[in-house]
Design a protein that fits this description.
single chain, Arc Repressor Mutant, subunit A, 3-stranded antiparallel beta sheet, elongated
Length: 111
């Protein structure tokens, strides 16, 4: 089966989370909403650099954005993380059997 040429929402979520700074931002927004300026100061980034990270998180559906005047407010969009959680969750039942399968495989060789 061929991969589609356009990224799915799940692809965008995982791509956004590959960057450690964006994972830190998601963690902070899980605790409390913040402004772009607050996040930039907390991470030692310029506003343009923080806006680039925010754009990636917005495209992935991981954050909510609201502008009031000149201030950009951000909050975590938990539904975006639930998408990744659901994908990972489908493998949980298999993970539980991995060690047992390995033990059975090794036992066949009388090791």
């Amino acid at each position: 089966m061929n991969e589609p040429s356009t990224p799915t929402q799940l692809d965008l979520v995982f791509a956004a989370l590959t960057h450690p700074k964006r994972r830190e931002i998601v963690y902070e927004l899980a605790l409390t909403p913040a402004t772009v300026g607050q996040l930039a100061r907390a991470h030692g980034l310029t506003l343009p650099a923080m806006h680039k990270h925010v754009r990636v998180l917005l495209e992935a559906g991981l954050v909510l954005h609201k502008k009031a005047g000149r201030t950009n407010f951000l909050a975590l969009r938990r539904q975006g993380l639930k998408l990744a959680q659901a994908w990972i969750g489908q493998y949980r039942t298999e993970w539980g059997n991995d060690l047992e399968s390995l033990d059975n495989y090794i036992a066949r060789f009388n090791i």
